Amino acid sequence: MEKRINVTRSSMPSFEEYCEEIRDLWESHWLTNMGVKHKQLQAQLEEYLDTPHVILYTNGHLALENVIAAMDFPAGGEVITTPFTFVSTTHAIVRNGLVPVFCDINDTDYTMDVTKIEGLITEKTVAIVPVHVYGNLCDVDAIRKIADKHGLKVIYDAAHAFGVSKNGVNAANMGDASMFSFHATKVFNTIEGGAVSFRDDMVQKMNDLKNFGIRGPERVAYVGGNAKMSEFQAAMGICNLRHVNGEIAKRKAIVERYRSHLSGIPGIRLCDDQPGVVHNYAYFPVVFDGYKYDRDEVFAKLAENNIVARKYFYPLTNDIECYQELPTAGAEKTPVAKFVADRVLTLPLYADLSMHDVDRICDTILA
Ligand SMILES: *Cc1c(COP(=O)(O)O)cnc(C)c1O
pLDDT per residue over 169-223, tens digit each? Predict the structure, then answer.
């Protein structure tokens, strides 16, 4: 059996680089609570993402849950979102006492179909939570227009879009707020971690939400929770940020190799780069639509050859067990998302994946 190829592999600095970065923590004994590393990473990310405010969190999910909470929407408000995402997006809405209303996706880049948003708006709608899925940017201009017309907030789940920009505008500056995930499997990681960027001045509230609403030694002004990023996570981020551009360049070369094998094959659909967009090559989704084998057969064939692909995103979040009772649930209401979810695989992709392995994966699919 040839060696196992996993779907992803976390980026890490050298052991020595990380040890050097955490050395001062043994001198200071300051392990969390917005210490030196936390402040340093925050400033570096504000620069890297070219955005005025970045607040760090212990993971992306709590960042999203908290930024939605910070908007103080009335309970029972409706939020238009996509079912073609990781469950975190939908959970963050529901855990805030809001109702997800699922909008279908388009079949070119799999982001929200902007022509279907207005038909879902009711007097209860408070926000739109789209996802830059696979690092493909949503049609942010169309979404902004619709939101402005109806007085809605736009909060992007940008978990996949670290480092992505369009015509010089970073994904961090789109919408009223954006959430990034720095989970181990993402393009840039802090082991677990996440961040929020935002336009309006929400700094106080976002800080309150992640640190118990504590504003001073004897002052607690807000009913916040705890979602702080620790110094060890931040140190990992400081190290990984030094290498992230190189990692993205390697990912790009791998994607180009995949495309050279798989584009133009009947029944295989790939995502193209979007015009004007600098991509991060976070994922390599392939849709098997009329190929000689269906998605599940390709998945099984790859597994037999010790290659791990992922049915990402299947099932849709409007089709999972915990939302069965939700009146807006049901994959049949979002037919394009259902079509794609039934046919998509994301192939292994990480910076150190070898070209030889890419060739082996493609040979297996094409055999
Ligand atoms: C990873 C991810 C999240 C959650 O991020 P965590 O850092 O794992 O909590 C949210 N949404 C999407 C689309 C994701 O891929």
Answer: 999 999 999 999 999 999 999 999 999 999 878 999 999 999 999 999 999 999 9
Q: What's the confidence (pLDDT) of residue 2? A: 83
Minimal CA–CA distance to 41: which of 30, 25, 57?
57
Let me know: does 80 contact 120? Beta carbons within 8 Å: yes
- The residues with which 105 forms a beta bridge, in sequence order, are 112
Q: Kindly state if the Cβ of 157 falls inside 6 Å of ligand 1.
A: yes
**159 CB within 6 A, ligand 1:** yes
Q: 304: Cβ–Cβ under 8 A, 6 or more apart, which residues?
A: none
Cα dihedral 35, 40, 43, 49, rounded to 10, equals -120
**Is the beta carbon of 317 within 6 A of some atom in ligand 1?**
no
For the Cβ of 131 lying below 6 angstroms from any atom of ligand 1, the answer is: yes
Give the pLDDT of residue 200: 78
Query: What's the CA gap between 207 and 134, in Å, rounded?
Result: 29
Query: Considering the entire predicted model, what is its pTM?
Result: 0.97
Rg from Cα positions in the chain: 21
* Separation of CA 60 and ligand 1 centre (Å): 5
Within the chain, residue ranges assigned H as helices are: 15-28, 36-48, 60-70, 87-94, 140-150, 203-210, 231-262, 295-304, 335-341, 355-366
65 lines ligand 1 (CB under 6 A): no
Hey, what amino acid is at 129?
V
Nearest CA to ligand 1 atom 5: 60
- Looking from the CA of residue 131, the nearest atom of ligand 1 is 13
